[in-house]
Design a protein that fits this description.
The complex is a heterodimer of chains A (296) and B (357). With 296 residues, chain A is mostly helical. Chain A has helices at 7-39, 42-46, 60-66, 69-100, 108-120, 125-141, 147-154, 159-170, 174-182, 187-198, 200-216, 219-224, 233-245, 259-293. Chain B has helices spanning 22-32, 34-44, 46-69, 92-99, 105-129, 131-142, 146-157, 164-174, 188-195, 201-206, 215-240, 244-252, 257-282, 289-296, 303-306, 309-320, 323-352, and strands at residues 9-11, 18-20. A two-stranded antiparallel ribbon of chain B has the order 1-2. Chain B is flat. The chains are: A mainly alpha (296), B mainly alpha (357).
């Protein structure tokens, strides 16, 4: 028998549905607007005539962007930073997290503190910047002239992610590890054949965190990469934004689309890859968010 | 009983005689040659220790070395020399920023302004940003259909995965100024706000971001848009793990919705709330410099309310190349931040036996 809803429960339920629908739509709206504005005609965008759906549809803004070499350049730089950056960060974190998960490791507490302290205290952006300049000199002196590699190696390591991996490895039953050692597996084989397969979902979560933060990275890439052709997409978007919003008088603008449409088209292009993989990965993010709240 | 060397002996029950304790002998040996044993253990297990090396090096070079650069805050600004060779000058950078003596008077005013803004942005972030995910989680719990709920959840998480650049670009475009030359109206959100009477038509036309009165609201609202959905996951997980029997028991006792919230839901998610609160207080002063910088770089008129310590020191470094002063400002910010983490953690541990570290 189903219990009748009390009046207070009913009010709360109705309110919940309404609130969440409105909130979800508001979360979505800026992206919808970006898509519409990138596809709308010049007059409609400049005079703010569209609200949700595109008006006077044109594809020239996208076409102009796709024929721009700088755009593809920036895109490939972002791919470079994301792929190599994720591999590097993930590799270092898996190795470190694995070693930290072992009870037999000497000075385990000290190493843990070494990590956790960086979550409490960070030097700040100016000292970090000076430090990057110093390490850049070192990199250049050993022959690594490409600033992208410095960004790959120095950036994006997060103590939290290593702790997530460490906790996952700690949960692997020690019997399985012992069995593997009895079978003559080396340390590396134990890690790759036992621990990594058994903590797949945490590793996927951490890899996605790294990949997203690399894809979205802006500030340090802008500061560290001196060659403009090596800048990633986020820096390109920002430069275009500054360039086009500085055009207060649009006298010299003759294209059939508004300058804003270019910015919106860029934004759309930069989030499309995330949107495509988003449905498949969002359950991992949910998992990661929960792990972050668990007492370490 | 001890032997001649002073080691403890044990009584061997079989023979009835005292003999040396082999375990104690090993323990004594380890104590005597501690570092030798450490070395031997590491050598025997070198593969495991080698795995730690890359991580330690990355953290050493790019997390701890910047802390060494902070020493520049005690030194004369000399861009040519590395920190180690600079002339030590004590606390004058700190004194100047805090007290504003002599040539520091304007800088000190700006420093205090930045400090105030940092505190206010964080404080409002806690006040408005922190309860929002909890509310969302409570509301999500009301939606019993999995498809509808996860559909809505997916939309609310989405902004979290956008980069700061994309997010701030959208903000800038949606509240952009109108043009007096062409008669173009301001951005669509500005228009909506002006239509609702929340801001004046003139402010909207001049550009909402240029008005220092609205920066804090813009920062908080965009922050909620960005993170509230994602942060609600943790609370939602805590709420759905409450056993249905708890609700049933409360209902039998005649508890209405509010009483259930108060006596069933709230106590169950309290520890999650405390942990998340510690984390938020801990990161209070590490206001996202990227977001602030992207929102105020092109709008110097809003610096009155938007400049925070990290962007303030970044500007001192970029405009005047005074890295010592900039480091001093960041040092103070970071030390206060660390005290906040430790303080919040201690209070939480005392009050509810939940602690993060």
């Amino acid at each position: 028998m189903k219990r009748k809803l009390e009046i207070s429960e009913l009010i709360f339920k109705v309110f919940s549905y309404t609130f969440l629908t409105v909130f979800a739509l508001l979360c979505l709206y800026p992206f919808l607007y970006a898509v519409s504005a990138s596809l709308s005609g010049r007059h409609a965008v400049e005079y703010q005539e569209l609200i949700v759906f595109p008006k006077d549809i044109q594809f020239e803004a996208f076409a102009a962007m796709f024929t721009n070499n700088q755009f593809w350049n920036a895109y490939s730089n972002t791919l470079f930073l994301t792929i190599y950056g994720t591999i590097w960060s993930l590799g270092v974190s898996i190795l470190g997290g694995y070693a930290l998960s072992k009870k037999r490791l000497l000075f385990r507490k000290t190493f843990n503190f070494f990590l956790v302290f960086t979550m409490w205290f960070s030097a700040g952006i100016v000292p970090q910047y000076l430090n990057y300049l110093a390490t850049k000199t070192v990199f250049n002196s050993v022959g690594i002239m490409d600033d992208k590699w410095l960004v790959v190696i120095a950036m994006g390591m997060a103590a939290m992610n290593i702790i997530l991996l460490r906790n996952a490895f700690e949960n692997v039953p020690s019997e399985i590890e012992e069995a593997a050692i009895v079978d003559g597996a080396t340390e590396m084989q134990v890690l790759s054949k036992v621990f990594i397969p058994m903590s797949k979902s945490t590793i996927a979560t951490v890899a996605l965190f790294f990949a997203i933060s690399r894809w979205n990275g802006y500030f340090w890439a802008r500061q560290m990469i001196s060659n403009a052709n090596e800048q990633p997409l986020q820096v390109f978007i920002r430069n275009q934004l500054e360039q086009y919003t500085d055009l207060e008088q649009l006298g010299g603008w003759s294209a059939p689309y508004a300058p804003d449409s270019i910015i919106f088209a860029l934004i759309v292009c930069s989030i499309i890859p995330i949107l495509i993989i988003y449905p498949f990965i969002q359950k991992y993010f949910a998992k990661g968010a929960n792990a972050g709240g668990v007492k370490e | 009983m001890k032997n001649r060397a002073g080691d403890y002996l044990i009584l061997d029950k079989a023979t009835g005689a005292y003999r040396e304790n082999p375990e104690q002998a090993v323990r004594d040996d380890v104590e005597k040659h501690y570092w030798l044993h450490v070395g031997r253990t590491i050598l025997k297990d070198w593969r495991l220790y080698l795995m730690l090396v890359p991580m330690l090096l990355v953290f050493l070079f790019w997390r701890y070395m910047p802390m060494y650069e902070l020493l520049g805050s005690f030194k004369v600004d000399d861009v040519v020399k590395p920190v180690a060779d600079q002339y030590f000058k004590g606390f004058s950078n700190f004194k100047g920023l805090l007290l504003g003596t002599g040539t520091f008077s304007t800088l000190s005013t700006e420093f205090w302004r930045a400090m105030r803004n940092t505190f206010l942005l964080s404080f409002y972030g806690l006040l408005f940003g922190f309860p929002m995910p909890i509310l969302l989680a409570l509301f999500f719990n009301e939606i019993k259909s999995d498809i509808v709920r996860s559909g809505l959840q997916v939309f609310t998480y989405l902004p979290k995965f956008m980069s700061t650049v994309v997010m701030t670009s959208l903000v800038i475009m949606l509240i952009r100024q109108g043009s007096s030359a062409t008669g173009a109206p301001p951005g669509i959100v500005s228009q909506a706000l002006a239509g609702l009477g929340l801001i004046s038509q003139e402010t909207a036309q001049n550009g909402l971001l240029k008005d220092p009165n609205y920066f804090r609201a813009i920062y908080q609202i965009s922050g909620i848009w960005e993170t509230a959905g994602y942060s609600s996951i943790v609370f939602f997980a805590a709420i759905i793990s409450i056993s249905p029997t708890s609700y049933e028991a409360a209902q039998i006792d005649g508890a209405n919705k509010w009483a259930q919230m108060r006596y069933v839901v709230l106590p169950s998610i309290l520890s999650t709330i405390v942990i998340m609160l510690i984390t938020s207080i801990g990161s209070m002063l590490s206001i996202g410099y990227e977001k602030v910088l992207l929102l105020n770089e092109k709008f110097p008129t809003n610096h009155m309310t938007s400049e925070v310590i990290s962007t303030f020191s970044w500007r001192i470094k970029a405009d005047q190349n005074q890295s010592g002063l900039a480091s001093a400002a960041e040092m103070m910010n970071n030390v206060v931040g660390m005290l906040l983490v430790i303080g919040a953690n201690t209070i939480a541990r005392k009050a509810s036996n939940v602690s993060l570290y």
